[in-house]
Amino acid sequence: MILRRTCKEAAALMVAREDRALPTLDRIALRLHLFACHACPKFERQMRLMHRAMQRWRNYADD
Amino acid sequence: MSTTPIEGQLAEHRAYLLRFARLQLRNDAWAEDAVSETLLAALAKPQSFANRSQLKTWLVGILKHKVIDILRQRQREVQLVDDDGDGSQELDALLFKADGHYVSEPADWGDPEQELNSRQFFMILEACTEKLPAAMGRVFLMREWLELPSDEICKELKLTPTNLYVQLHRARLRLRECLEINWFGTKPNAMS
Known about the structure:
The complex is a heterodimer of chains A (about 60) and B (about 190). By secondary structure, chain A is mainly alpha-helical. Chain A has helices at about 5-15, 25-35, 40-60. Chain A has one domain (about 5-60). In chain A, α1 crosses α2 (about 25-35) and α1 (about 5-15) packs parallel to α3 (about 40-60). The longest helix of chain A is centred in the C-terminal third of the chain and has 19 residues, at about 40-60. Chain A is elongated. Chain B is mostly helical and about 190 residues long. Chain B folds into 2 domains: about 5-75, Rna Polymerase Sigma Factor, Chain: A; about 80-180, no CATH class. Chain B has helices spanning about 5-25, 30-45, 50-75, 75-80, 90-95, 110-115, 120-130, 135-145, 150-155, 160-180. The longest helix of chain B has 22 residues, at about 50-75. Chain B is globular. Chain B starts with a helix and ends in a 10-residue tail after the last helix. At the A-B interface, α1 and α3 of A face α3, α6, α7 and α10 of B.
């Protein structure tokens, strides 16, 4: 059960990794969760889109 | 009225610079100062650029330095206040049930390329960033817009690393929620 994560925990990890490297155990647990979960990959795509949006924003490509 | 070319070009970018200075500093007077100093610096040492976007990049570069100077000068005023009552618990409860499952699944945000080419998307992103509580918004933009390293943000704002990550975490969750509501339209008419 050491690798088991709820959606809430998985989402928290996906937010956290925007700002810091995750410990190995969390990284593996997150990957396993994303394989098995229907909803969390959507959350992951949202975070990825936000990441790219911020990148564009600070590179002044927004207007 | 006669404006030399460089002055005209600078004026063109003023509104853009002011928007970002405001967003980062959360104080209109400081933002005006930062932009004025930026434009003065640009006038004092004008350079020629092949196009509009190069000039803008140069100006934003100057602005970022001015903004960092102001954040340093105003250090005591921009330090975080205790904000346990900032609604973050409520935000969590909106998204997750007690057992850790989503209340409702995250929405499909569509094709990133298409969204990111939309001017309106960035307007909403800006509006959502503006809606972050002032202290949280400053921290978030110090990281995402000024691109300061974490340890430097901690030093400037006298934050512990944990505290910094908590602030960034909350800011990201709020932005996600705001975008979902206001751009991806799962709950229409919620922009308020």
